[in-house]
Amino acid sequence: MGINQTLSYDALVVGGGIAGLQAALDLADQDYSVAVVERDASIGGTMIRLSKVFPTLDCASCITTPKMAAAAHHPKITILTYCELESMEKDGQGRVRAVVRKKPRYVDEDKCIGCRQCEYHCPVYVPDPDQGNFAARKAICVPFSNAVPQIAVMDPDHCMLCGTCAKVCPTGAVVYDQKPETLIIEALTAVVATGFSVTPLEDKAQYGSGTIPNVITGLQMERLLAPHGPYNRVLRPSDGMEPDSIAFVQCAGSRDKSMGIPYCSRICCMYAIKQAMLLSGALPLADITIYYMDIRAFGKGYEQFFQNAQAMGIQFVKAKVALIEPGEDGSVTVRYEDQMSGGTTQVSHDLVVLSSGKVPGWNPQGRCPLTVGPDGFISGPEPKLAPTRTVEEGIFAAGAAVGLKDIVDSIAEASAAAMHAANYLESRKKGLGAVA
């Protein structure tokens, strides 16, 4: 696979989540040209897939979508979606040189007008990961309703090559034999905002290894709570029943050396409390229990948020859950050690939500000269004084790529990274001139 195109910008932003978008907008508003490289088919990252944010319970989509639209329409920002960063390094002149693999959508981006006729007529249904795999989508589709860009992408593993999508496409955008491309992006500076990933249910043998239908992740619960979720209300996945008893299991992988994640994932306590409060409103008669080791309410207003949840009748049990097993009639049995009274207890719930451990979304080792700490997150020479600086001059990092943090801190850190990048650009441009 040869090089198809070389592109030059002032700045490169790796990652199109909330941190990456904030950094890109801050740089572009200072009249710098910016390329945003995103591995998914749409920008927005994890935040666009949430229902609400803590502690204000504001609509997550209402915050993220305007930033997505602003980035998409900004004359100084170029968005490259469905692209994987293969490598990034500094050349002899100190410029950043990134090799990007553009994955095939099997749709011509210049011709696609987002009419969704291909999606409407496609006869093949596949599980929809953007709905927690609770619903189905077509083998060719726009990823979700407010995706940016509104360009379809085909799943080649499930497409039957029946030709229906190509026949109904009014612009002839479907390209069955589309090949991947390699792009070279040259820039004076870069901001890495690659976010985090959630450990899969299959990694947790003591919690059923993903085989118990009514044991789900926190992100799956976000989709059940979302107004545009798979069921339009909270239902148990196994049988569509409204759950009468719901449990949240904290530190399901975090703070656990046996799982390879000895650190606290930091955001889990607050998003579990948020989801419990939303569930209390959606299912006012349901019993909601949060099994926790320690509640970490670290931000402004978070302790009050925790106390409000207690006042709403949400039960908090200080315990370490040892085992989760399937029960009768779709129920889930939770066995735990009570850390207050001692001894072990067994309780049955209709639905169990795991606050799974979080890990870095991208590993720079072998791809670029950045260093990582023992936890796998990007580390720099001054993690306390300047957390956005890396060991490589001119390359900065922000958001969960540096370490797990909430949305507010991710946005603030992204703006700090953009400020450092802008200062670096000014110093570089005085010696090199602007990038064409």
Automatic annotation (TrEMBL):
Flavoprotein: present as a keyword of the record?
yes
Gene Ontology MF: a single term? 4 iron, 4 sulfur cluster binding
Transmembrane segments annotated in the record for this chain: none
Q: Which InterPro entries match?
A: 4Fe4S_Fe-S-bd, 4Fe4S_Fe_S_CS, FAD-dep_OxRdtase, FAD/NAD-bd_sf, HdrA-like
Q: What's in the keyword line of the UniProt record?
A: 4Fe-4S, FAD, Flavoprotein, Iron, Iron-sulfur, Metal-binding, Oxidoreductase
Name what cofactor the protein needs.
FAD
Tell me where on the tree of life, at the top rank, the source sits: Bacteria
**Residues annotated as domain 4Fe-4S ferredoxin-type:** 102-132, 149-179
Family, per entry = Belongs to the HdrA family.
What's the protein here called?
Answer: Heterodisulfide reductase subunit A
